[in-house]
Amino acid sequence: MEVAGSPGAAEPGEIRALKQCLLRRNHSREQYGVAACCLEELRNKACDILAIDKSLAPVTLVLAEDGTIVDDDDYFLCLPANTKFVALAGNEKWAYNNSDGGTAWIAQESTDRDETDSGAGLKWKNIARQLKEDLSSIILLSEEDLQMLIDVPCSELAEELRQSRVAVQGLQNTLQQVLDQREEARQSRQLLQLYLQALEKEGSVLSKQQESGDGFSDERDAVDSGIRESASEIALSRRVLMALKEKPAPELSLSNQDLELVAKADPEALAVALNWDIKKTETIQQACDRELGLRLEQVQSLHSLRSLSARRNPLPGEAQNPKRAKRDLT
Questions:
Q1: In total, how many domains does the chain have?
Q2: Which of these, 81, 128, 266, 324, is most buried using a 10 Å CB contact count?
Q3: CIDE-N domain location, by residue (predicted)?
């Protein structure tokens, strides 16, 4: 059976299932069957059915079996159908009634005892009964509830569940395994989070290093000038630069490749590297360019002479053009 829009329970349009319950007053054997979708609705119906004066508020609902205070909707929804409730008005205290089935806890020895502490101390019995009805509800138990059942003495839990101590010991071992698995899962999630954070941090560091490397990959120290130079200018470092600065005619001591690099170098960058002015730098570049041109001309001339000599002096063994013999007319 379902109801929509129960007072004090569900939001407008929300549908909740009704739970059948049994209500009675304290020290009374007369019980009333009611159905409610939430704890507040059950409390309101208790006031109406049991004729409780609302001036005696607050009205407290407790389990008739052991006096556990029920003040949470989630706990109420976990209780089985036809659970017996006792409505306490004002400062009334729950008292044992043998009509509750003979399994109730003994009545409080002192009326000043804190009911909240009593309910918390017997909470494990409600959880145990829940497991007895449906063992699969283990997955719904919180870690606190699991630990509570594990800590209960085996003999007491066996008595509550009406099982042998061996079976209950196995149940507690299973509960411990579930608790351990949850702890392992939590630690695994934490380790995974730390691993992902480390990867993210490492990626950030590598990215910065790559950016830094890209920024300085084209730079070199040209006499501590720190000027960015091209690949050809980097080739001029040290040996070539020292030759340009120290030799009276450096173009004569440099190789063809070095001459080409000097001639093609950026005048401003080369001037800074040599600590010269632009005019002096351009002069030495022009000298290197002329020297390179002279060397190329010499090479070309040498190749021409070799070709001419090869045509005039064939190698031994090469076939000679036979001369045409004169016809002997005699």
A1: 3
A2: 128
A3: 17-96
Whether residues 186 and 249 share a domain: the answer is no
CATH number, position 245: 1.10.1490.10
> What SS3 class is residue 19?
strand
Alpha carbon of residue 84 to chain centroid: 48
**Residue 281: both structure tokens together:** 């730098």
141 to 51, 66, 76, 327: CA distances (angstroms): 37, 21, 15, 130
Tell whether 252 is covered by a domain: yes
Q: 194 Cβ partners below 8 Å, 6+ apart?
A: none
Bigger pLDDT: 281 vs 139: 281
| pLDDT value at residue 110 | 39
In-domain check, residue 319: no
Task: Please tell me what DSSP assigns to residue 252.
Answer: G
Instruction: Please state, in angstroms and rounded to a whole number, the distance separating the CA atoms of residues 80 and 183.
Output: 30
pLDDT in tens, 236-253: 668 888 888 888 888 888
Give the integer Cα–Cα distance in Å for 174 and 141.
13
**Across all residues in the chain, what is the average pLDDT?**
75
Q: Is residue 306 part of a domain?
A: yes
C-alpha distances (whole Å) from 106 to each of 64, 85, 96, 97, 118 are 12, 17, 6, 9, 11
Q: Are residues 137 and 183 in the same domain?
A: yes
Q: pTM of the full predicted structure?
A: 0.30
- In angstroms, the Cα distances linking 243 to 38, 270, 292 are 97, 13, 16
- Domain of residue 163 covers 120-199
CA-wise closest residue to 244 among 222, 259, 224, 225: 259
**What residues does 228 pair with on adjacent strands?**
219
